[in-house]
From TrEMBL:
Key word Nucleotide-binding present: yes
Gene: Hspa9_1
Family statement: Belongs to the heat shock protein 70 family.
Protein name: GRP75 protein
Species assigned in the record: Todus mexicanus
A Pfam family annotated for this UniProt entry: HSP70
Keyword Glycoprotein (UniProt): no
UniProt KW keywords: ATP-binding, Nucleotide-binding
SUPFAM superfamilies on file: Heat shock protein 70kD (HSP70), peptide-binding domain
Region (Disordered): 1-22
Length: 52
């Protein structure tokens, strides 16, 4: 994917609803475990919805 189409695809996989520019507040957390595996979670601060 390229440009905004890639971003749209990613957003739908996480379950973040579309919103006007500047409105969504997303907290993204990256954790690396002892085996070097990266775990990513995203939380919509407006709705409290979280996806890992």
């Amino acid at each position: 994917c390229s440009g905004s189409s890639c971003l749209s695809a990613s957003r739908s996989q996480v379950g973040i609803p579309p919103a006007p520019r500047g409105v969504p507040q997303i907290e993204v957390t990256f954790d690396i475990d002892a085996n070097g595996i990266v775990h990513v979670s995203a939380k919509d601060k407006g709705t409290g919805r979280e996806q890992q």
